[in-house]
Design brief:
The complex is a heterodimer of chains A (534) and B (811).
Chain A: H1 34-40, E1 43-47, E2 54-59, E3 67-71, E4 74-78, E5 84-88, E6 95-100, E7 106-111, E8 115-120, E9 126-131, E10 137-141, E11 149-154, E12 159-163, E13 168-173, E14 180-185, E15 192-197, E16 201-206, E17 216-219, E18 224-229, E19 235-240, E20 243-248, E21 254-259, E22 266-278, E23 281-292, E24 296-301, E25 306-312, E26 317-322, E27 328-333, E28 338-342, H2 404-410, H3 414-423, H4 427-439, H5 443-449, H6 452-465, H7 472-485, H8 487-492, H9 494-533
Antiparallel strand pairs in A: 1-28, 2-3, 3-4, 4-5, 6-7, 7-8, 8-9, 10-11, 11-12, 12-13, 14-15, 15-16, 16-17, 18-19, 19-20, 20-21, 22-23, 23-24, 24-25, 26-27, 27-28
Helix pairs in contact in A: 2-3, 3-4, 6-9
Chain B: E1 2-5, E2 15-16, E3 22-27, E4 30-35, E5 41-46, E6 52-57, E7 70-75, E8 79-84, E9 89-95, E10 100-104, E11 123-129, E12 143-149, E13 154-164, E14 171-172, E15 178-183, E16 186-191, E17 203-208, E18 213-218, E19 224-229, E20 233-238, H1 242-246, H2 250-260, E21 274-279, E22 285-290, E23 296-301, E24 306-310, E25 316-319, E26 326-331, E27 337-342, E28 346-351, E29 356-362, E30 381-384, E31 389-393, E32 398-403, E33 408-414, E34 428-435, E35 441-448, E36 457-465, E37 472-479, E38 481-484, E39 487-492, E40 498-503, E41 508-518, E42 524-535, E43 542-547, E44 554-558, E45 561-566, E46 571-578, E47 583-588, E48 594-599, E49 605-610, E50 615-620, E51 623-629, E52 635-641, H3 644-650, E53 656-662, E54 665-674, E55 681-686, E56 702-707, E57 713-716, H4 721-733, H5 749-752, H6 756-761, H7 776-779, H8 791-810
Antiparallel strand pairs in B: 1-57, 2-3, 3-4, 4-5, 6-7, 7-8, 8-9, 10-11, 11-12, 12-13, 14-15, 15-16, 16-17, 18-19, 19-20, 20-21, 22-23, 23-24, 24-25, 26-27, 27-28, 28-29, 30-31, 31-32, 32-33, 34-35, 35-36, 36-37, 39-40, 40-41, 41-42, 43-44, 44-45, 45-46, 47-48, 48-49, 49-50, 51-52, 52-53, 53-54, ...
The chains are: A alpha+beta (534), B mainly beta (811).
Chain lengths: 534, 811
């Protein structure tokens, strides 16, 4: 019986070292973190001409996640691909807020006349008109887990909990002392919601509490412009003034963090999600997107309490929305433009779950035919077999890929190597080969061996690059030597004279720059000295 | 407590054992036995008192005897010894009282056939020196080839086969019928007499060549001899000695052949049929060997390429870029294994037909020689105090990490991505190497020499150690850190996150480490170094730099002055007085507030400055080669070169002394004199209790390592009593303690009692629960059966534990 022995690994005597250009200095900070790469991967499109400020944006929770934008006295619906599909304009006053029901079939909209209307999304007909507010309504919200009720609040400082079907108010929640501007319903409970008001407070309400008093109250310190529940249901984020604050409701309304990186009032916040690849497995992480009048959108990682991305827009921003499938991000400005960002990617990153509930007709995989010697594939079997974990892999030595100049240098054909790399138009490699030739003490020998055409190549390279600061220490010296050594040839050839003229010109240019730099230095240095004395 | 190491593995050819599992290597006074499977040392044969020059393994007389491990060794101390190297045990010593430069034993190569019946004497041919000064003999021809009867333990009287000026290498043919030497342009071949009698006539022929011959080799089966010369030619004589060795009446035959006149290439009347020449090597051929089947010839030389010639066709195959001149090529009894010894103290074990390197037995690399203009850039040796390693630059642009305690190479770090070609002009030089205190970071600087003023480059590189085995990876390169000026010194801050580099261009820079930990793949630390501060003092060249032990003070020598800086704020604190010549070495003395400065030149000086008084405390006029200070104590050691005049008479060739001082006291507490101090280095090592054996029941606090100019080293306890006695006696009688590897007589046996093999087993032992823990009956039987101690042991332990419990209860 033959003994199977593992091939003994032998070491190569010495490695082949390629001619590499000098490393370039790396920036201390990466130009783009993976996160900012993600956020800038939303391909931006503008939806202009929407008359006036975009007061509210809302995404439908059901795929394909169309969204609605409220501006002036109308609401526009946009389909999944950010193209307008229809407009509802049966409003008597400016629309202040809109909200989709959790199944995406109904849309509630409030306007400044104090009316709250419920529309069928498909037919755009108003199904219910809820009138009870005496002053403009500022926000309306469908609870996440409840299809029958609606929450609204307005300038009359009253928060109303509606029974939609009966067009009746279930609860009048009093407590705010100023305009109620915003509110949100808990993602985990159908009974809990928060509202924010211009009296600087955010109140947490529970419909089960009998005397319609707020359960909890936190003070933001500034008029509250927006409030949202974070997906866990235990934290809320409030926006007001220049800051976004995160509060822990379970911990009794303790402030967790205050993000103050906006320069003007933060007008709207929403939850965005990012896919993180952490140690192989993918997970979604939540971020807070905030927009403000300063025209910035900031992405705040509330896990690490860090602003991870910020983006500038050319107008004050009024509203922000992020689709549940993580593919669309819309931002409304005060001058009637919606900046919609759409991202390519898989559809399946649903947050709502939903998906193909009825999809039990999964396609059965076609039965694989066994391989028989009559098949052609039989003779190829096993060749493309992937190694299983635990298999002992015999690695083939990686082949070093040699460039042409590497091969020539290996054969000690120094001049040919120099010429070949000069033909290649990569300055870095040319300099690297020159440096290698210097260490072999062969550079000047090469220069003296070049024929006229090759010398032309070299002079062309030198005239282009001799004044580059990165290479000048080597190339200036070399230029001098080349001209000194090959003066005869240069004099006798016109094209070479042309190269020399170019060289002269670039050097004069460099001299001029140096002169002006020195002048600047002369101006600055006394200033620095004076500054240093203090 | 003393350890030696760093000896040359390539002073003479090694030999394979009969089963090719062991390799016997002459390492100065001992023969070290290495395992060819692991490349680690197994054991060593100790007994010779001078350099061992030859080792000959006794071949097996029958296939069954392959496991026998006997060998003969010859040494300059005038003895031939017979060993069983499996045990290892000395079997026999033959003292012939003359130094032996070389020894071959041809006769046992062809014994087996008729050996059964009668016992024959075993003869060796030895190359000795005639120590008897006789009038008529000129001094020139004192090296003799003599015959030695190993069975009767004596030289065969008066039989001198040949005499040469210099000791030459005796080469024996694989068949054991011939042996030969080279002698300038000639080649002498003797035929070994068939009978085992003492005075049988030994016949000799001479072959001539026009160039100096460097190496010869015999064909295993045919009568073919190959010789390499200094110009790189390889000559092959076929059918040598047909006339002189075969025919009874040589003269007649010679006449007969002279008529034929058909001896192509053979010079004069040399006794050979034909002579062919191959020429590939550009420099002298050092290695020549026929393959065991006689079909191939291996040759190698200074250019570090092993060439395989197909003997019939002359076709060549190469093993290129070994990177160092080849010295010996040894075939093993196993046809798939052979070994080449290189001049950089490495023995490569080759897997044969493919010529891949299986293992490398790595000795300490030899110091590299650099052009004159680059002298004085430091010796490129750094000690890793905690791990007991030394980092030294090598010729092939590497930093070799060598374990001082284990006496073997750990790893090599390629500093410049270049292949080294021996014999080429040196154009890239690694000038400085520095290690952080914990040994995890390294900084190197290198200089690329300019070609006629263009293209010179200075690089500073920072390295970080990988998780294991000192595999360093590059973290930052700084091109031209001080514009075009060379770097004079690189030193790490004690905390490890700061480096100062001083330059001859008149400034020094402090580099700081920013480490950003990338969490994605298992806490991969990525260090990047940036310049934190630049300082200069009156535009003077900065020649040396040192951090104090707590890192709060940075001392930079500006030629003859010492400037003290706050490294964090880059503020000049003080300037210390003046020495006569530029300072080349600065060192803070442990935790004490003293600073030692060594300056060289015409007025060399060792001065100790007090930091508290900011003044000179004491100084000596000594040429200092190296200074080392222990981390904790205030004592320091300095390696001083002795002035040339005192050399001959008092120190017997020793050219340096190690002086151990207490910082406050100008009288040295101990002195040792050493050889080859030029280019030497000193370093204190922290003691790792597991690696050092105890002396008088206590382990020494620190060890001092001294490495001489040839990279042989000794590690000893500077505070040991024996050392004190030695030093005292030496002050009076100057009977210096020898620190040189070759002549030393001090215990080396104690080191190799603990072998790497045993070290590997050590971690396993704690797995065996050999003594009862508190509740042994619960754990004693758990574990896999092969880990459990024998039942007898277990049972007693188990019962004992129960008994103890019981007595406690009774009381």
């Amino acid at each position: 019986m033959a003994e199977i022995r593992a091939e003994e690994q032998t070491l190569a005597v010495s490695k082949t070292f390629l001619i590499k250009p000098k490393l370039k200095p790396k920036a201390r900070t990466l130009p783009q973190t993976p996160e900012s790469k993600y956020w800038s991967s939303f391909k931006s499109t503008q939806i202009p001409n929407l008359v006036s400020s975009i007061s509210s944006l809302s995404f439908s929770p059901s795929p394909p996640h169309p969204f609605a934008a409220a501006y002036s006295a109308s609401v526009s619906l946009f389909d999944g691909n950010v193209s307008p599909s229809s407009t509802i304009s049966s409003f008597s006053d400016v629309v202040s807020s809109i909200s989709f029901r959790s199944d995406g079939l109904l849309l509630a909209a409030s306007d400044l006349s104090g009316l709250v209307q419920v529309f069928d999304v498909k037919t755009r007909t108003p199904l219910r008109r809820l009138r009870s507010h005496t002053r403009p309504v500022r926000f309306v919200k469908y609870p996440v887990l409840d299809k029958l009720h609606l929450l609204s609040g307005g300038d009359d400082a009253v928060v109303k909990f509606w029974d939609v079907a009966g067009e009746s108010v279930v609860l009048d929640l009093m407590g705010h002392k100023d305009y109620v501007r915003c509110g949100d319903c808990s993602p985990v409970s159908s009974d809990l919601f928060v509202t924010g008001s211009y009296d600087h407070t955010v109140k947490v309400w529970d419909v089960r509490v009998e005397d319609s008093r707020s359960v909890l109250e936190v003070n933001h310190g500034k008029p509250v412009e927006d409030v949202i529940y974070l997906p866990s249901g235990g934290l809320i984020a409030t926006a007001g003034g220049n800051s976004v604050k995160i509060w822990d409701l379970i911990g009794g309304g303790r402030m967790v963090h205050s993000m103050e990186s906006h320069n003007k009032t933060v007008t709207s916040i929403c939850v965005g999600r990012i896919r993180k690849e952490n140690c192989g497995d993918e997970s979604m992480e939540d971020r807070i997107l905030s927009v403000g009048l300063d025209g910035y959108m900031k992405v705040f990682d509330y896990g690490n309490m860090k602003v991870t991305h910020s983006m500038r827009f050319p107008a004050p921003l009024m509203s922000v929305g992020f689709s549940p499938d993580c593919r669309t991000r819309v931002i409304g400005t005060s001058n009637g433009i919606i900046f919609a960002g759409r991202r390519k990617g898989k559809e399946n990153v649903e947050s709502g779950g939903g998906g193909n509930v009825l999809g039990f007709e999964s396609i059965s995989e076609p039965e694989r035919r066994g391989l028989r010697p009559t098949y052609f594939r039989y003779f190829h079997r096993g060749q493309s077999e992937k190694p299983v974990e635990g298999d002992y892999l015999v690695m083939r030595n990686k082949k070093v890929k040699l460039a042409e100049h590497d091969k020539l240098l290996k054969k000690f054909r120094h001049k040919d190597a120099l010429v070949s790399v000069l033909n290649k138009k990569s300055q870095e490699n040319v300099v690297a080969v020159m440096e290698e030739l210097v260490t072999r003490k062969k550079l000047l020998k090469c220069v003296s061996n070049l024929d006229t055409d090759e010398l032309g190549l070299l002079l062309m390279f030198l005239s282009k690059n001799a004044t580059m600061p990165r290479y000048s220490s080597l190339l200036m010296g070399l230029t001098e030597k080349v001209i000194e050594m090959r003066a005869e040839d240069i004099r006798s050839s016109d094209p070479l004279k042309g190269h020399i003229r170019n060289l002269k010109r670039s050097i004069e240019e460099e001299l001029r720059i140096q002169h002006s730099l020195q002048e600047i230095q002369g101006i600055i240095s006394p200033l620095l000295r004076i500054a240093g004395r203090r | 407590m003393m350890m030696r190491g760093g000896r040359s593995l390539v002073s003479s050819p090694p030999a394979f054992s009969n089963d090719a599992k062991k390799l016997l290597v002459c390492t100065s006074n001992t023969v070290s036995v290495f395992s060819t499977a692991t490349g680690l040392q197994i054991t060593s044969l100790e007994g010779h008192t001078a350099l061992v020059t030859s080792v000959v393994v006794v071949p097996p007389s029958s296939p069954a005897a392959k496991v026998l491990c006997y060998c003969w060794t010859a040494s300059l101390d005038g003895t031939i010894r017979y060993w069983d190297f499996s045990v290892p045990e000395l079997m026999k010593t033959i003292d012939i009282r003359v130094p032996i430069f070389n020894m071959v034993i041809p006769s046992f190569l062809d014994i087996p056939a008729e050996d059964k019946g009668k016992h024959r004497d075993l003869f060796a041919y030895v190359f000795t020196e005639d120590t008897k000064e006789t009038q008529e003999k000129t001094k020139a021809l004192r090296r003799q080839i003599r015959k030695c009867n190993l069975s009767k333990s004596r030289l065969v009287g008066r039989l001198i086969l040949g005499e040469t000026k210099k000791p030459e290498v005796l080469t024996v043919s694989p068949s054991g019928k011939f042996f030969g030497i080279r002698n300038k342009c000639k080649l002498h071949v003797w035929k070994v007499p068939d009978q085992g009698s003492e005075h049988a006539a030994v016949r000799k022929i001479t072959l001539h060549h026009t160039k100096k011959i460097t190496v010869i080799a015999f064909h295993p089966t045919q009568r073919v001899i190959a010789a390499g010369d200094v110009t790189g030619r390889i000559l092959t004589w076929r059918g040598f000695g047909n006339i002189a060795f075969d025919g009874n009446n040589g003269v007649e035959k010679q006449k007969l052949i002279n008529i034929q006149e058909d001896k192509p290439g053979v010079r004069d009347n040399d006794d050979a049929d034909s002579c062919t020449t191959w020429h590939w090597h550009s420099a002298e051929v050092n290695v020549l060997s026929f393959s065991s089947d006689g079909a191939y010839l291996y040759s190698g030389g200074k250019e570090g390429v092993l060439v395989v010639w197909q003997l019939d066709t002359g076709k060549k195959k190469f093993l290129p870029r070994i990177g160092s001149p080849l010295l010996y090529f040894i075939d093993s009894p196993d046809p798939t294994l052979s070994a080449i010894s290189c001049a950089d103290n490495q023995i490569h074990l080759l897997k044969m037909p493919s010529m891949g390197i299986l293992k490398t037995i790595s000795g300490i690399k030899t110091p590299c020689c650099y052009p004159e203009m680059c002298k004085g850039l430091g010796n490129g040796i750094a000690f890793d105090q905690t791990a007991g390693l030394v980092a030294l630059r090598t010729e092939n642009y590497c930093i070799q990490f060598y374990s001082l305690f284990d006496d073997r190479g750990i790893s090599e770090v390629q500093v410049c991505e270049r292949n080294h070609q021996p014999g080429d002009d040196v154009t890239v030089i690694v000038t400085a190497v520095a290690l952080s205190v914990d040994g995890s970071l390294m900084s190197t600087s290198e200089v690329k020499l300019a070609e006629e003023g263009i293209g010179g480059l200075v690089c500073l590189k920072f390295w970080q150690a990988g998780s294991q085995n000192k595999e360093f990876s590059l973290s930052t390169i700084v091109y031209e850190p001080h514009r075009d000026a060379g770097i004079s010194a690189v030193t790490f801050h004690p905390s490890g996150n700061m480096v100062v580099s001083s330059s001859f261009g008149g400034d020094f820079k402090i580099w700081r480490c920013n480490n950003d930990i990338i969490q994605s793949d298992q806490m991969h630390q990525n260090f990047s170094w940036t310049c934190h501060a630049v300082g200069s003092y009156k535009k003077r060249p900065m020649t040396a730099a040192a951090f104090s032990a707590d890192g709060s003070v940075l001392a930079v020598a500006a030629e003859t002055l010492i400037t003290l800086w706050n490294p964090y704020k880059n503020v000049l604190l003080a300037v210390l007085g003046e020495t006569l010549t530029p300072i080349v070495n600065l060192s803070f003395l442990g935790k004490s507030d003293n600073l030692a400065a060594a300056s060289c030149g015409s007025n060399p000086q060792l001065s100790v400055w007090s930091m508290s008084k900011l003044s000179l405390s004491w100084s000596y006029k000594l040429r200092i080669e190296a200074v080392a200070s222990a981390v904790d104590s205030s004592s320091f050691a300095a390696l001083a070169l002795l002035p040339e005049s005192s050399n001959e008479t008092t120190f017997k060739g020793r050219d340096g002394v190690i002086l151990l001082y207490n910082a406050t006291n100008p009288v040295p507490t101990a002195i040792w004199s050493v050889k080859k101090a030029m280019g030497g280095a000193l370093g204190f090592l922290q003691v790792n209790p597991s690696s050092v054996e105890e002396v008088d029941g206590k382990t020494p606090e620190v060890l001092l390592a001294y490495m001489n100019g040839d990279h042989e080293y000794v590690v000893f306890d500077p505070y040991c009593k024996d050392a004190h006695e030695v030093s005292i006696s030496q002050k009076e009688g100057l009977s210096a303690l020898e620190l040189k590897g070759q002549g030393g007589q001090y215990g080396y046996a104690s080191i190799y009692g603990e072998l790497p093999e045993f070290d590997e087993k050590r971690p396993e032992t704690p797995w065996v629960p050999s003594f009862p823990s508190e509740r042994p009956w619960e754990t004693i039987f758990s574990g896999s059966s092969h880990n459990l101690p024998p039942l007898t042991k277990l049972c007693s332990a188990f019962l004992e534990s129960l008994l103890e419990k019981r007595t406690a209860a009774v009381e």
